[in-house]
Each structure stands twice: as C-alpha cells, then as structure tokens.
Design a protein that fits this description.
Blueprint (H helix, E strand, L loop, with lengths): L2 H23 L6 H14 L2 H15 L1 H5 L1 H25 L7 H22 L7 H16 L6 H10 L3 H6 L7 H15 L2 H24 L1
Helix pairs in contact: 1-2, 1-3, 1-5, 2-5, 3-5, 5-6, 8-10
C-alpha cells in the first residue's frame, strides 16, 4: 500500500471519529432509540484509536515529515478519541443518575475516567518477549488493568496491545480489538510466555552470563 492510500485510510478513520463526535454532541438523554444507537456507534468507535495508530505507524515509516510531527498529530487524535469516548460512556452511565444530579454525576465520572486513562498510559510496563520479563509484566498488568472492573474488556485489550512490543505484539496482530477477543489475547500470551521451564532456563542463562560480562569489563 502506497503513502497516498495510507493517508486516505487515515482520513477515513478521522472522519469516522468526527461523525461519532457529532452524534455524541447532539445526543439527547431520555430517548431510548437514541440510546440504543449510541451503544451501537460506541462499540464500532472503540477500535478507531488502534486503527489510527496502525496506519500512522506505516505512514511515519514512509514520510519523514510525518515522523517529525508525529507527537503533535497523535496527541490531537488521542485527546479527541478519549474525550468523545468518555463522554459517550458517561451519557450511558448517567441514565442511572437522578435527573436533578445528572450533570454533576456525568462530569465527575468523566473527570475520574480521563485521569485513570492517562495514568494507566503512563505507568503500564512494556513487554517485548523476554521470558525473564513475563512474570513482572504479568503481575503489573493484572494489578493495573486485568483486575480493574471499571474497564471494559475492549479497553483492557487496548491497554494490553499498547504495552506490547516486537514478537508479543505480532502474536496478536490478527485479532481485532474487541470485548470478545480480550480473553483470547491474554490467554495466547500466557500460553506462549508462561513457560516455567524456559523462564528458569533464561534466568539461569542470565546469571551465568554475568561473570563473562564482568570479566570483559575488567579486561578493558
């Protein structure tokens, strides 16, 4: 796929997010039909960030100008995405609030949700496929994301994918980011890397390599 096609696909993703944001901006509480439509649209919009990042990665590999402006363009899309997704979720959650406190309930929930999203994005560890790193990564991810009942499975999958690099990321490449696929993705990683024999082997190998490294430093 050439650069023009990639930019066209990125434009389509941005357009989809804009259309969703427009719908959310005109959403009226109390309309059961609109609420159903919002749920359907939200489910489809959940994977827009992943699609954008995949396309943006390819564009940056082909265009140095895009690479120089990557931080700003990515931040702009992420801020829009998280803002509109949070607002849509709070509209749906806000239906359970009493009518005289809907606005306060919604704004408070959105504030907490946004803070949690940015906090998780900053603190999640990265896993690149080293067996010696699997257990520390697993424990940290279980604590921060997997066992967090305030996150949907789709959100957990998004955090999981953003925490992976190299081989583990490629392992999940064929899976769409969705509620249904999160458990499958997590179990695939466990089956691949939670190998006690290989974990012990790699720990021992790292220990035996230490004297050689120290000897090389001394000889220098």
């Amino acid at each position: 796929m050439d650069l023009v096609q990639l930019k066209r696909k990125r434009g389509n993703v941005k357009s989809s997010l804009t259309k969703f944001a427009t719908f959310v901006g005109t959403y009226q509480r109390g309309d059961s039909k609109a609420e159903t439509e919002l749920r359907v649209r939200l489910e489809k919009a959940d994977n827009l960030l992943d699609r954008y990042e995949e396309i943006q990665d390819l564009i940056e590999e082909m265009d140095e100008t895009e690479l120089r402006n990557a931080t700003e363009s990515r931040k702009e899309f992420e801020d829009t995405f998280y803002g509109v997704i949070s607002r849509a979720r709070n509209f749906l959650q806000g239906n359970s609030c009493q009518s005289n406190s809907v606005q306060g309930c919604s704004s408070h929930t959105e504030s907490i949700h946004m803070k949690n999203i940015h906090l998780l994005a900053l603190t999640l560890p990265k896993f690149s496929g080293e067996y010696t790193d699997w257990l520390p990564f697993k424990d940290a991810f279980l604590s921060a994301v997997h066992n967090n009942d305030k996150l949907t499975s789709s959100e957990k999958f998004r955090y999981l994918r953003s925490s992976l690099q190299n081989e583990p990321l490629n392992l999940l490449a064929a899976l769409e980011t969705s509620n249904e696929n999160y458990s499958l993705a997590w179990n695939m990683l466990k089956d691949r890397y939670e190998n006690e024999r290989l974990i012990i082997h790699n720990h021992l190998k790292a220990l035996f390599d230490l004297p050689n490294k120290c000897w090389k430093r001394k000889s220098l």
